[in-house]
Amino acid sequence: MNKVPDLHTHSTASDGTLAPAAVVHRAAAAGVPLLALTDHDTIDGLAEAAEAARACALGFVPGVEISVTWAARTIHIVGLGVDPAHPVLNEGLARLQTFRAWRAQEMGRRLAKEGIEGAYEGARALSGGQLIGRTHFARFLVERRVAATERDVFKHFLVARKPGHVAGDWASLEQAVGWIRASGGQAVIAHPARYKLTRTKLMILVGTFREVGGVGIEVVCGSHARDEAFNFARHAREQRLLASAGSDFHGPQLVLSSQPWIDLGRLAALPDGCVPIWHDWPAAAGLEGTGAPDPARAAVA
What are residue 256's phi and psi, to 5 degrees? Predict the structure, then answer.
């Protein structure tokens, strides 16, 4: 595998299983040349990760993954190069965190009605008292042997029309991209294949995203098979979007033998013809895809 930047990772600040510094150390050991920490709706892990990155001379990009409600579904937008101290970003994320706190309690109440007591308390303990996500509930229910795997938990308890599901009340696409841009960052559509959009809906999403200031799309990521990466590389070229790459790493114990690319340091290179989102970043100088893009690709926003 070519050593490419990993611009989508998670820590215990949201639903990862390693502390921010531990994510950085694992990335450095794996040869990742440039890392972004992009926890869900929080920037709480960025200071620790940045300090660890300085100590081990790893290039670091402050990031965040923002939850968005678009067309009655949840979409994730990654912000790269954000300023963690910017008030617009912090105020927006605070609203999402308030909703997350209420949602977690409501999920616990709904699961209790189904005879699963203590789910909220168990999920909160697994989260370390920080942001509580559906993944923490899934891990707790597996520990309780209510289900065999986290995938089974989501399928039978935490998705629409299942007992523990609570609909999201997230940011709008315009709000999320606005917060990212206000804080000096670049907005990227995360793992687009995961949403199972028709081509028509995908084009509407991309069009709206670009209209409000979005610039990138994840082409290579832990959620994408090889053919999906080539498909979204084509979309990036045709829609004049910068291409990003990220494992969506959540923890070493979640890396399956059938999906080694979701570990740090295992990403494939971007397909030919893409303009990497890092192509003009000073922190990425010397990496593949940096420097002047080909004239045929220079029209990318």
Answer: -90, 150
Which pLDDT belongs to residue 2? 59
Query: Which of helix, strand or coil describes residue 267?
Result: coil
- Count H helices and E strands in the chain, helices first: 9, 6
Cα–Cα distance between 9 and 16 in angstroms, integer? 8
**Token pair belonging to 95:** 């609203």
Q: How many residues does the chain have?
A: 301
Residues 131 and 42: beta-carbon distance below 8 Å: yes
- Residue 29 CB contacts under 8 Å (≥ 6 apart), including other chains: none
Mean pLDDT computed over 148-156: 91
Structure tokens at 36: 């972004």
Q: What are phi and psi of 119, to 5 degrees?
A: -65, -40
Query: What's the confidence (pLDDT) of residue 261?
Result: 55
Contact of 235 with 241, CB cutoff 8 Å: yes
CB 184 within 8 A of CB 82: yes
DSSP 195-250: G---HHHHHHHHHHHHHTT--EEEEEETT--HHHHHHHHHHHHHTT-EEEEE--B-
Band of pLDDT at residue 253, cut at 50, 70 and 90: confident
256 vs 226: CA distance, rounded Å: 17
Average pLDDT, the chain: 91
